[in-house]
Amino acid sequence: MLRVRDNHFWDMLKMENTLPEDLEDAWDHGMLVSSLAGMIARQLGQSEEFCREIELAGMVHDVGKLQVGEYLYGRQEGTLAIEEMQYVRLHPVLGFERLKQIGGFSDKVLEAVYYHHENYDGSGYPSNLRGERIPFAARILRVCDVYVALTSERPYRAAFDLETAVELMIDEVKNFDMQIFLALLAVVHSEEMREMQEFTKRSNQKIKARNIKETIKMEAIL
Ligand SMILES: [Fe+2]
Q: Whole-angstrom Cα distance, residue 137 to residue 142?
């Protein structure tokens, strides 16, 4: 796992106005989605070439979020206002455009980034695609993204454990391609998952420590 080691792309982004903690969170999230996507693709018997592409797509799928960062990562109090939510929902398209601008990404990677928030039942965004009209790689990213998000610490809630995350996903299974979801279930209970769980734990500890620091800062102000 964690095969994507090309830092070049991230170095380019660092030169922009991205906050270090946003970049760190984006990096961890990308690594986790990338690893899980690779494991699922292998579980589904995909070619090595496809697996490498999906790992790359997993690494960069949320790059558009760095442009809408002020609304994310808990810096804005409370829930997102409608306009903010719509802005955040632009991130797959923003990411796609950014990657195209950087260049060197295959159509498959670009397409996976563009459609990674489409739901299998047609309720996703940006294009409300349904079922097999959603590119396969994007359907894999969707499943991985949700699983990784649920098992990650957030400023407004603790990380869910593996079993709870799976149960929550079963409640929303209409959003996912069933064969990919079943592959996720096989993968999360496999030996290979250990390394990823360790990475998740370390990442969550970092976020927790940062959240505690923020709380202490707030208390000092009060
Ligand atoms: Fe996303």
A: 9
Amino acid at site 30 = G
Domains of the chain: total: 1
CATH number of the domain at 119, please.
Answer: 1.10.3210.10
Tell whether 10 is covered by a domain. Answer: no
Q: Which whole-number Å values give the CA distances from 37 to 2, 40, 169, 222, in the listed order?
A: 10, 5, 16, 44
User: Does any domain span residue 11?
Assistant: no
Q: Whole-model pTM?
A: 0.86
- Cα(221) to ligand 1 centroid in Å equals 34
- Domain span at residue 55 reads 18-221
Q: How far is the CA of 190 from the centre of ligand 1 (A)?
A: 26
Distance in angstroms (rounded) separating the CA atoms of residues 171 and 158: 19
Q: Nearest Cα to 156, choosing from 63, 80, 64, 69?
A: 80
Protein residues within 5 Å, CB atom, of ion ligand 1:
62
Q: Which tens digits make up the pLDDT trace of 75-132? A: 555 566 666 677 789 999 999 999 999 888 999 999 999 999 999 999 999 999 999 9
Domain assignment present for 87:
yes
Helix (H, G, I), strand (E, B) or coil at 16: coil
